[in-house]
Structure prediction request, 1142 residues.
Amino acid sequence: MSKYLVNLKINNIPVSVEEGTSILEAAKKLNFSIPTLCNHPDLTVAGNCRVCVVEVKGAKLLAAACATPVSEGMDVSTNSQKVRTSRKHIIELLLAEHNSDCTKCFKNGHCELQDLSSEYRVGDHVFLDLVKPKDKIQDISSPSIVKDDSKCIRCQRCVRTCTELQSVSALAVINKGDQQKISTFLSKSLHDVVCTNCGQCINRCPTGALTEHNYIEEVWNALYNPNKFVVVQTAPAVRVALAEDLGFEPGMRVTGKLVSVLKKIGFNKVLDTNFTADLTIIEEGTELLKRLKKALVDKDENVALPMMTSCSPGWIKFQEHLFPSLLNNLSTCKSPQQMFGALAKTYYADKINVKAQDMVVVSIMPCTAKKFEAGRPEMRDSGYQDVDYVLTTRELAMMVKQAGIDFHKLEDEQYDSILGESTGAAVIFGATGGVMEAALRTVYEIVTGREVPFTNLNIIPVRGMEGVKEATIKIKNVKPEWSFLEGVNLNVAVAHGLVNAKLLMEKVKSGEANYHFIEIMGCPGGCLGGGGQPIPTSPEIRKKRAEAIYAEDASMTLRKSHENPEVTEIYKEFLGEANSHKAHDLLHTHYKVRKRY
Amino acid sequence: MEKKVKKVDIIFETALDTSPLDVLDKTLQRSADDIILELIDSGLKGRGGAGFPTGLKWKFTKNEDSDTKYVICNADEGEPGTFKDREILDRVPEKVFTGMTICGYVIGAREGYIYLRGEYNFLLKTLNAKLDIFNKALKDRNIDFQIFVKSGSGAYVCGEESALFESMQGFRGEPRNKPPYPTVAGYNFKPTVINNVETLVYVAMICRIGAEKFKALGTTDSRGSKVFSVSGDTPIPGIYELELGMPLSRFVDEFGDGDAKAVQVGGASGHCVPRKLFADTIIGFEGIPTGGSMMLFNSSRSMYNVLKDYLEFFTEESCGQCTPCRVGCQQLLKGIEAVKRGERPPAYLDEMKKLTGTMRIAAKCGLGQSVGNPFNTIIDNFREEIIY
Amino acid sequence: MSKIDLLVKGLVEQHGKTRNSLMPVLQGLVQQERFLSEEAMLVVARELDLAAAEVYGTASFYTFLDTVPRGKNIVRVCKTITCHMKGKEDIVNAIENTLKIRTGETTHDKKFTLLTANCLGWCHKGPVMLVNDEIYPDLTPQKAIEIIEEYATLNGH
Prediction:
């Protein structure tokens, strides 16, 4: 399907691009960079900030490079006097309605508006200050997201993110003219509206208008407190992204350095969420097999199938708000973060002889919704709040800098034991399709006694960045105790990004879908594209992180969760068997019906 | 040259011998291409203010390959100083319906909509009643075209055509990026002709009286006549259909109160012409085009108040999505206030004039692009009144 | 089922369950209720399968789709230039004194809300005001008061 080629000139250099290409993309081909603010590779074109204006010869108006398609014979100038004057004006106008208290801003040094104003040297900008005092009152009601309207430049990236990628629309543009702003329903606080805490808006906010609710000081204070024993767990996706905030290119794996830096920062034990990811597979795989048995053998019509994964707290809250009738389909398994917390303050505390009340559990997550999850009232099965503080990958990078540690020069170190051992199946939890792949590696082997029939255990059909992926695995030659599964076609589906989750849920709700097991991750790309990951994000960046995740998996000796020796050990010593009474007490949870309207 | 303005009676004329439906019946005998040719020949340009040749607009839309097309009558008359569309819809709605139906026939549309501003809701009842009769007449004639009314709810920017489509589709009235233009992707992203109320009446009338008679009026650049909304310091405010191409001085002689110091031509987004330029200013596309608004100000008026009033209007009515317009309008308003209070030096007015240069070329739609018209013409001609 | 539920259901039935119906549905609600309450917007969102914030975002764009409580009669005095020149100030003052409220406020008995509006399209007959959908041109303070008083008696107690 070859497209029509269009010939044009940009800054006097000829270029041919496909019909429909924007001036912005065409200029990129010639390595001319045009500044943008409202434009984002993950979102539809808005063309509203206007900083990307360029001059097209013969046109009375400047064209927004992001929103204007090329046409034959176009003669574009990206840096003419008209362009420069206008662009500078526009930046100055944005600054006039922006609370420029940069030195105190959480995004100081990571702000696209700051970069632009520094590039254009608008220090002496002349316009009148328009920041409304009431906009300076931050909304800190959400445990995950802080909204500061005085920093907002109305680019609407957050609104498009919340609508186009997540189909949540917690944020919308309200009012018009000088009163126009980004707001929730009736300007309620974020805590009180249908917000999943996914943080995707933060990833795309060019300024400090949307940031994570940070707990950096709280964690330092815990570390400084001699009476506290502080353990830290790290999520799979952190190890393939942290480096981006510390000066490396996307796609760098820094697992060993991550462990090393956490030890240097002063955590008493550096442990791994991957351990409980493996444990999740055992619990969730068993739960799936039980549900299948109830459905196929006991012919129990009340058993909720398809079963859906429950690792992603943004997805969970989405389901609670939008599809409460499908809550029984969610696996009752807690997420790996929360399994870890519950075990840390019981089994592990006993083992290392620390009182649960003296233990502080910190998690490093690619996710802002994990902050909300940790605070859920259901998550206190140890008798205490199981996970005390959740930091995003970005917050950890800030701590690394604050600690004055040269990350580049660190030697690799190993996770502490116990609760530090993991397999390749756990690390792929960080990519969309990973939980499915990990579960299939284990479930198939439990049922048949053989490895999944995919080369090198790589279940390619569930990998990749397609919004909804489907696969069918035929189960053959099963062990005698699983005879009811003989010849069954196991239908699975994987979705990432809540807009895709919604599509899938509508199919499930209408009965159109015929799946047994569904994996959903709230964020585009899965956890590697989580709302707590380094900024910027784009399809290319997420692709590189995914490659790193699968490389990490391939590099490991153990690649199946049921082969994790620490997992075997904890069942023998503490939990008994999968889905045991004790496992249910500590590792499983329930969900809450929430209102959409 | 005549001394007086030439008053014309085309729009509101109600000939007893030819009803709008007669015009329709006669016109639909002709081929679509023939009608387009006559419209192009007539030189009719859009009467909403922008002045795009009507025949060309129809031709582009006709040439689009699509099963669904729409005709939209833009009755979101919100420009301060303009009230002619209300009068037309009140007095001769059938002529508007006829123009729309002819358009539907020419471009191949089956549905037409009148987007009526919410401020004119009181017209709805009679308009809908008359539409019922007209729609039935169309059905009786086996003409596959029906007209409906959609209401606005108080937003000036919805007069901008793509904002109007957004509003009709249930969204905030925010103008779209262009291209694509309405002829390609308009209402429901289908090819759409959107014409001003008055334009559609002229279409019907050209189809009745012929392009020649229409062309005989006006000038080369501004063919025909146009309906003017006259207000402000005039003893005879109201609606007048006048030949295009007259010098403003002649207009002021006819309508002024003897003490006119300025005329705002084209509404709040138009140009302010001071007395010294009356004689040299032509009302038409070769001079100052207008959607019909003519506001007269006599020497008792403060042009600072006039400008402030306009800027307040734009500050509130900007859709708010693009930076130059949203922030620019606020800067201009606060800026003249600051100069007035002495908080900024008079030279700051020149900084703001530069800003309107950016707004003119970088704003997303006509609203932001045209705020500089009143700003610059008032600042340039009445600088003292702004400062002191 | 609440009154609002029924009203919205009726409007959605009349106009269709699509996004294109959002404006007519909101307009129908305002016609009956004078403003869009939280409940009303939530019901509309549910019936049209939209997020509540989207309904609010759309409604708040339009001056006539009020999202704060309004009185039974909404008085909108045109404030744009010609009406300004012809004495809208005096009209507003007269109504404020009669109703004992300031512009933007609603009377205690919830009968009247007084607002100003941008150009209503009657520049040749200013000052002018809308009461609900009815237009009153060529106003004098005295005339404005009489009109308000008429509405006060019309609506009973």
